[in-house]
């Protein structure tokens, strides 16, 4: 992945994300032309027509308001993920944006498909990638299952090696106080939890510096430490 990557704890397509999304458009590899944005509601594919349509409409309205050329693709199952026309539009995009829903469904729908190959093709040439909530979780190495406090329930795409990505992290305040020490106990050395607060994003590129943007914080938790970073702070991810 050569393009800019943004992981969001929540807030996709809302005004609170305008600064972040303008930054992504400016760093999408469009080289002076109007950025082409593709919005994908895939993670909401099991939630019904109304939910999928809402995400598609919100994405189009949001990015049109920011001056982009935007298309929302109704890609909600594996058959649609194998459609050539969808893959071609994704491959031409300057910014690919996955909204929220169910992370396991998102991964299972895209794994090994033409659509995911098109995502890789686009980001390899420098297109930006944004994932919010489930759209952030599925690019970690592991998909956490908090129902069992298990960290290694399913492997994901691994764009951030050794990572377990948890959005909406600020809403887990009681859970964090009780469970972070337990999670640290079972977290293997070298792996980490990336906690993303709501209305907050971590923006950067694998192997390079990452910057926190938005109104809250990002947490990096290893088996030995737990560190919070606020907007404007920069750091590198291990792994």
Write a brief caption for the model.
The chain has 239 residues and is of the alpha/beta class. The chain has a single domain, classed as Class I glutamine amidotransferase (GATase) domain (Rossmann fold), CATH 3.40.50.
List the helices and strands and how they pair.
Layout lengths: L4 E4 L9 H9 L9 E5 L8 H17 L3 E4 L5 H4 L2 H9 L2 E4 L4 H8 L3 H11 L3 E5 L1 H4 L2 E6 L4 E6 L4 E7 L6 H14 L5 E5 L3 E5 L4 E6 L2 E5 L4 E5 L3 E3 L3
Parallel strand pairs: 1-5, 2-3, 2-4, 4-5, 6-8, 8-9
Antiparallel strand pairs: 1-10, 6-7, 9-12, 10-11, 11-14, 12-13
Helix pairs in contact: 4-6
Structure overview:
This protein has a single domain, classed as Class I glutamine amidotransferase (GATase) domain (Rossmann fold, 3-Layer(aba) Sandwich). With about 240 residues, the chain is of the alpha/beta class. It has 8 helices and 14 strands. The model has no long low-confidence stretch (mean pLDDT about 95). The chain is globular, with a radius of gyration of 17 Å. Strand 10 (about 200-205) and strand 11 (about 210-215) form a beta hairpin.
From the structure above, extract its key features.
14 strands; single chain; 6-stranded mixed sheet; 29% strand; 239 residues; alpha/beta; Rossmann fold
């Amino acid at each position: 992945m050569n393009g800019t990557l943004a992981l969001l704890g929540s807030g996709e397509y809302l005004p609170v994300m305008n600064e972040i999304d303008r930054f992504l458009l400016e760093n999408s590899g469009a080289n002076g032309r109007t950025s082409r944005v593709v919005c994908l509601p895939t993670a909401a594919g099991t939630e019904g027509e109304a939910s999928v349509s809402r995400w598609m409409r919100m994405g189009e309205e949001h990015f049109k308001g920011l001056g982009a050329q935007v298309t929302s693709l109704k890609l909600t199952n594996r058959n649609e993920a194998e459609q050539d026309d969808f893959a071609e539009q994704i491959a031409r995009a300057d910014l690919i944006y996955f909204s929220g829903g169910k992370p396991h469904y998102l991964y299972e729908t895209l794994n090994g498909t033409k659509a995911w190959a098109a995502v890789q093709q686009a980001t390899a040439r420098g297109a930006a990638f944004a994932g919010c909530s489930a759209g952030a979780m599925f690019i970690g190495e592991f998909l956490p299952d908090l129902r069992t406090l298990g960290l290694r329930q399913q492997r994901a795409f691994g764009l951030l090696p050794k990572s377990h990505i948890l959005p909406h992290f600020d809403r887990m305040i009681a859970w964090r106080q009780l469970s972070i020490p337990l999670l640290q106990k079972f977290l293997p050395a070298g792996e980490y939890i990336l906690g993303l607060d709501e209305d907050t994003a971590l923006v950067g590129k694998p192997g390079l510096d990452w910057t926190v943007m938005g109104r809250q914080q990002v947490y990096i938790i290893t088996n030995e430490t737990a560190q919070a970073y606020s907007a404007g702070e920069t750091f590198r991810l291990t792994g």
